[in-house]
Amino acid sequence: MPDLISINPANGETVGSYPDLNSSEFASIISTVQEAYDPWRQLDISERCQFFRQMAEVLRARQNEFARLMALEMGKPLAQGKAEIEKSAMGCEYYAENGPEFLKEKHIETDATESYISFQPLGVVLAVMPWNFPFWQVFRFAAPAMIAGNVAVLKHAPNVQGCADAIEGLFLEAGYPQNVFRNLTIGSSKVAEVIENPMVKAVTLTGSTPAGKAVARTAASVLKKTVLELGGSDPYVVLKDANLDQAVAACVIGRLLNSGQSCIAAKRFIVDESIQSEFEEKIVKAMEKEIVGNPFEDSSTVGPMVNHVAKDELAGQVESSLNSGARLLYKSKIPDTDQGAYHPIIVLTDVKPGMPAFDQELFGPVASIISAKDEEEALALANQTPFGLGAAVFTSDMEKGRIIVESKLEAGAGFVNDFVRSDPRLPFGGVKESGYGNELSPYGILEFVNIKTIYIR
Predict the structure, then answer these.
(1) Annotated active-site residue in 263, 375, 433, 447
(2) Phi and psi for 20 in degrees, rounded to 5?
(3) From CA 200, how far away is CA 198, in angstroms rounded?
């Protein structure tokens, strides 16, 4: 079978080649993970937690190495890669500290002599993970699922198989039992066969909405639980009473983090028309300070896009929006190379519904400014999207902001006066075409357990 190829997006050079496993090969790996399930689930939860404390230590010890690996395989600037490893370690520690309490039996008063709720693992869980946060996405799934007693198989994106192999090796380095976590080097066409394997009990996917729908259809056909974290077109609503310096700072970070390649990146800036000119002036000045460049250079704040296909798709969305009446407010410089998949930082204004910059997810360093005549129109424009992952509002009225993000913005997370991000302590998930189910927090650890009623008379 054709190999899975990892290509450095900064220069087009091949980083690694990995064999695409055939059906019997990956079925054999799944069997070994299934064999590891009973011994793993029978460990006291305190022992499973201790393994993840050890994992956090190993992650931190190799932080620089893994940041360089991410820079090589998907172009993440080094400082952001180091932050991702630290966040992964924190996620492991969060569930190691809190998992036992989250999974503690819940006793309920009924007519029984004793009745309670027990949380039991399901078995082998498949994780289909994306390239944009190649370590964090894996550990935010693995820590809660495995502390709950499940075992895991990973299908990572083809271009970050070096990261996937490294993660599999980390489980051995941190002292875990053999085969409780395995990486499957397979292409997307084989995911359905893995889901249909009777030893696989549930699936979690982070990725595009079409990929999520395909996984959901297959899993539904064999009645298997799914958690889906999909695309987003996060609106940031800037009201006329907002602190503009605060709003602009959050908008720039939210738009450019991970070179703009994030489901929860700030995608659409919906600004009250009375402050639009000032907002535009400030955001252009802020964007001018950002540098698109080699992810290995400390000065670079935005790296290349993941590949030329993604770069060309984004460029097409920008061009179509400009042809439909959007106006180019700012365009940054990029490195002078044809080999690197660099896309300039772009700020578009006069963006309206019907343009790709409004209707579609722009997965890269392109900001869309949309004018709203008042708060009511701003919120209507914010919700005028098939997505519902994150949303933010900027206002000096804290109570108004709270009401807006709680009940007026259609999203899985609402932030007031800050950029949207995930936190191990808070649930993470979306609504509408951004998916369903939750990761992180107490709710995330309950996604892949049998919430079992025990009734004794």
Answers:
(1) 263
(2) -80, 110
(3) 5
For this structure, is 93 an active site residue? no
Residue 409 to residue 446: CA distance in whole angstroms: 26
Output the pLDDT for position 234.
98
131-169 burial, b at 16+ Cβ within 10 Å, e below that, comes to bbbbbbbbbbbbbbbbbbbbbbbbbbbbbbbbbbbbbbe
- Upper half-sphere CA count for residue 252 (Cβ side, 13 Å): 22
Q: What is the tens place of the pLDDT at every residue in 10-27?
A: 999 999 999 999 999 999
Instruction: Give the DSSP H or E segment for 237.
Output: strand 234-238
Those residues with Cβ within 8 angstroms of residue 301's Cβ, 6 or more apart along the chain or in another chain: 77, 256, 290, 291, 292
Q: How far apart are CA 372 and CA 276, in angstroms?
A: 9
Query: What structural domains and CATH numbers belong to the chain?
Result: 4-230+432-456 (3.40.605.10), 234-416 (3.40.309.10)
- At residue 342, φ and ψ (nearest 5 deg) are -85, 135
pLDDT by residue (tens digit) across 95-113?
999 999 999 999 999 999 9
Torsion region of 270: left, alpha or beta (phi above 0 gives left; psi -120 to 50 gives alpha): beta
359-370 pLDDT, tens digit per residue, is 999 999 999 999
Q: Which of 168, 229, 375, 439 is catalytic?
A: 229
Output the six-digit token pair for 308: 């030329």
Query: CB–CB of 362/317 below 8 Å?
Result: yes
Query: Catalytic: 92?
Result: no
The pLDDT score that the predictor gives to residue 3 is: 87
**What pLDDT does 1 receive?**
52
Residues sharing a CB contact under 8 Å with residue 103, sequence separation 6 or more, in sequence order: 45, 119, 147, 148, 445, 449
Please tell me the predicted confidence (pLDDT) of residue 451: 98
Residue 371 pairs with which residues in a beta bridge? 271
